[in-house]
Amino acid sequence: MLDQIFDYLHLHFSVEASIVLLLLIFLEAVLSADNAIALAAIAQGLEDKELERKALNFGLVAAYVLRITLLLTATWVQKYWQFELIGAAYLLWLVFQHFTSEEDEDNQHHGPRFSSLWKAIPVIAFTDLAFSLDSVTTAIAVSQETWLVLTGTTVGVITLRFMAGLFIRWLDEYTHLEDAGYITVAFVGFRLLLKVVNPALVPPEWIVISAIAIILAWGFSKRNLPEEDSSLPIKTQELEKQEVAE
Predict the structure, then answer these.
(1) Residue range 71-87: average pLDDT?
(2) For residues 42 and 124, is the Cβ–Cβ distance under 8 A?
(3) More confident: 107 or 6
(4) Does the pLDDT of residue 59 top 80, yes or no?
(5) Cα separation values, 33 from 37, 41, 165, 169, 177, Å
(6) DSSP 123-157
(7) Reduced to 3 states, what is the DSSP secondary structure of residue 1?
(8) Which letter does DSSP use for residue 221 in this model?
(9) φ and ψ of 108, to 5 deg
(10) Which of 183, 216, 160, 204 is nearest to 92 (CA)?
(11) What's the pLDDT tens digit per position in 131-166?
């Protein structure tokens, strides 16, 4: 009975399937680093830790639904270059918006700012969808088994949520990390654009991953100095006056 069910669902559990699944999960994790930074930077636009957490949770639930829809319609989507062009334009617009934003007192740019949670959620969801346009081809090339790709995607979204949570904290700790993240977003945007213009010009995955690794290394190269408590000198002077008076 079980064999008939598995045959009907095309679920062939084998050593080969396990290796392919691990490869899909690995690719999702590696290719999600730049995505995670972008989503973390977007969530930070709410400037409230609780709202940031909710934005990532709800945004990635919506993103998961969009990813599954994209995978199930991938054969149809790949026939129309307009989807990749829209995705590339959207990602490059995010990069342009970031680097043309006003600088803070540390001469650093910041991502978009949101007045409510519900304005941030669709931006997170559609940003992840734009990244998925680049990775869906890789996933399908690795395996034609729908259940394997869907399982890898599910684990990938969970990994992405974990990584985005880490990057939200790291964005406050490292000076160049947000800029580094948006530079990698630009790489993905130009890669999608090259697929539309001339697929032969698209760099191989190992070059993209190597470039992202170098840029992220620069992003982690400088840690923000801890803010000094300006009230300490005043408190010290008050203590000295009390000691003199005694």
Answers:
(1) 84
(2) yes
(3) 107
(4) yes
(5) 6, 12, 12, 14, 12
(6) HHHHHHHHHHHHHHHHHHHH---HHHHHHHHHHHH
(7) coil
(8) S
(9) -110, 140
(10) 183
(11) 888 766 655 555 556 666 677 777 778 888 888 888
- With vertex at residue 20, the alpha carbon angle to CA 191 and CA 67, rounded to the nearest 5 degrees, is 50
Mean pLDDT along residues 57-71:
88
The CA distance from 29 to 138, in Å, is 13
Helices 117-142 and 177-197, packing angle to 10 deg: 50
Indicate whether 44 pLDDT > 90: no
Q: Is the dihedral of CA 57, 58, 61, 67 positive or negative?
A: negative
Please tell me the pTM assigned to this model. Answer: 0.74
Handedness of CA 95, 161, 180, 224 (dihedral sign): positive
Cβ contacts of 115 within 8 Å, gap of 6 or more: none
Q: Residue 66, by phi and psi: left (phi above 0), alpha (psi -120 to 50) or beta?
A: alpha
CA distance 188 to 195: 11
Sign of CA dihedral 171, 129, 85, 46: negative
- Take residue 1 and report the two structure tokens written for it: 């009975």
Which residue type does 162 have? F
Spatial CA neighbour of 227 closest among 133, 106, 143 = 106
